[in-house]
Recover the amino acids of this structure.
């Protein structure tokens, strides 16, 4: 008997919209407190400074506004779970654009405020079914907004790592959506049912080829917390380092995910 086809995860679209606004609001509040010395600090993103990183966080919403200004694609051409792998190809252009924006906008609070204002207006003007020419193929507005939770959570974590004591909070709904999208992307990259990946309280996925688990305790289990999972999935943390630090509990011969990560770099 062939394995049952997995259902595509659905998201509460009202909660996703609220989460994007909430997480961006947390970022704006934190950026207002940054000193010139803190803005000049290095980050874990190559040559980016904190100022460059903040400029990129503004791009999270600006990208939506740019896409809705373009002609609508004639038909869907991608899927939400294609986005994590597709975005990696854009990394060099994204880095250069972030640095240019940082140079062009010395008043970062005004820059973020303008990005949020335009995003809010554009979001109100377009239905969730409107197609956008996103990386990896055309996505609906609703699906594209889920990708914004990934960008915001990942780069909020980068910001916290760069500025000691900043502690920008993570909106629970945004963190949940980010965790789930990256977990589902792993299941697409390594289809199967031999390994169960648990990221409580937000996600459980089956992946990796091999004997399929049907009942009882799975023979291959990986369990970790949401932020550790996100850091692994985005290349901020190496698998071995996470296991050695007891940030990941991996048991079973098919529980080593090092060859499958990162999913998004």
């Amino acid at each position: 008997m062939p394995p049952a086809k997995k259902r595509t995860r659905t998201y509460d679209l009202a909660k996703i919209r609220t989460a994007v606004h909430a997480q961006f609001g947390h970022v704006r509040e934190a950026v207002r407190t940054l000193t010139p010395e803190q803005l000049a600090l290095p980050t874990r993103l190559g040559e980016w400074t904190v100022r460059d990183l903040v400029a990129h966080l503004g791009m999270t919403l600006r990208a939506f506004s740019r896409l809705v200004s373009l002609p609508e694609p004639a038909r869907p051409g991608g899927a939400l779970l294609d986005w994590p792998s597709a975005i990696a190809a854009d990394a060099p252009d994204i880095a250069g654009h972030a640095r240019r924006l940082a140079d062009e906008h010395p008043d970062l609070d005004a820059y973020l405020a303008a990005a949020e204002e335009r995003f809010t207006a554009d979001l109100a003007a377009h239905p969730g079914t409107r197609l956008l020419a996103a990386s990896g193929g055309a996505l609906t507005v609703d699906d594209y907004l889920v990708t914004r939770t990934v960008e915001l959570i990942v780069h909020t974590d980068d910001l916290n790592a760069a500025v000691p004591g900043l502690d920008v909070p993570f909106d629970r709904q945004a963190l949940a959506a980010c965790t789930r999208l990256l977990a589902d992307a792993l299941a697409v990259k390594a289809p199967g049912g031999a390994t169960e990946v648990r990221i409580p309280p937000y996600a459980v996925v089956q992946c990796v080829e091999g004997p399929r688990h049907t009942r009882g305790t799975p023979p291959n289990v990986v369990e970790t917390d949401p932020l550790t999972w996100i850091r692994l999935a985005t290349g901020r943390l190496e698998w071995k380092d996470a296991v050695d630090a007891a940030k990941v509990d991996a048991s079973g011969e098919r529980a080593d995910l090092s060859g499958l990560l990162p999913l998004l770099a």
Observations:
- The first strand starts at residue 131 and ends at 134.
